[in-house]
């Protein structure tokens, strides 16, 4: 748990670091908010320390015997309104915890809202990350662009994220690649305000908190040793995509 907290803190620092990008033209400075959101990612410059740190976090969950090549690391850029909504959700969780009579996990909730590092696998069906392309597309089948766009909306659809990148890879492989979808694969590293967590296990609901309220849900298939692999984030404002890792699997055991 301590290691995960340190990794989440590192990701927070990295996501708050400005990346070098070409100067904006007079035309781009006058574009609308909707147009600015389309340019949702930037590629860190060569030699940027954030690339190595993100790659290390990404590789940490994979079996050593699997050959893995990281093709590209992209940073997700957010406007102030998105960041403000994320922090507003954190403050709401902290306030609810401070006013609660339930002492279980309240200390962690009051400190940071129970922020975690989580991973989501997705397909890329557009040219994002190719030849310097940083444009976010509007294809429904492009999972990465859909995920990035969702952080700019107020949709209430829950999102499923994983404890490590290997589990996220397995999920996207089973769901999409097995259906013969031809696309590149990517893992999105996310900051998540998990808040008060409930859990499903063998069709039973277990909720932390006497009042039955929770902000996210742990889902287990019953074959996970700790039952905490999958986290269902119930409010999209609680999730902030930070980095996109485009990768290729070279060999399987």
From TrEMBL:
Gene3D superfamilies per the UniProt record, alphabetical: 3.90.228.10
UniProt superkingdom: Eukaryota
Name the record gives this protein: Uncharacterized protein
Organism field: Quercus lobata
């Amino acid at each position: 748990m301590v290691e995960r907290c340190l990794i989440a803190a590192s990701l927070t620092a990295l996501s708050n670091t400005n990346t070098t990008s070409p100067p904006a033209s007079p035309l781009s400075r006058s574009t609308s908010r909707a147009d600015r959101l389309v340019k949702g990612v930037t590629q860190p410059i060569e030699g940027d320390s954030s690339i190595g740190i993100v790659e290390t976090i990404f590789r940490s969950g994979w079996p050593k015997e699997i050959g893995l090549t990281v093709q590209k690391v992209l940073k997700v850029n957010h406007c102030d309104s998105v960041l403000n909504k994320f922090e507003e959700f954190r403050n709401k969780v902290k306030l609810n915890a401070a006013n609660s009579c339930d002492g279980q996990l309240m200390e962690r909730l009051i400190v940071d809202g129970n922020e975690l590092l989580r991973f989501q696998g997705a397909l890329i069906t557009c040219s994002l990350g190719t030849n310097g392309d940083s444009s976010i597309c509007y294809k429904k089948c492009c999972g990465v662009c859909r995920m990035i766009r969702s952080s700019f909306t107020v949709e209430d659809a829950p999102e499923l994220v994983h404890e490590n990148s290997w589990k996220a890879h397995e999920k996207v492989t089973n769901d999409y690649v097995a259906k013969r979808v031809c696309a590149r694969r990517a893992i999105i590293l996310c900051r998540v305000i998990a808040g008060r967590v409930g859990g499903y296990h063998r069709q039973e609901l277990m909720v932390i908190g006497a009042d039955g309220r929770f902000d996210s849900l742990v889902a287990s298939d019953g074959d996970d040793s700790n039952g905490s692999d999958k986290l269902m984030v119930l409010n999209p404002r609680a999730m902030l995509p930070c980095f996109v890792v485009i990768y290729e699997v070279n060999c399987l055991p």
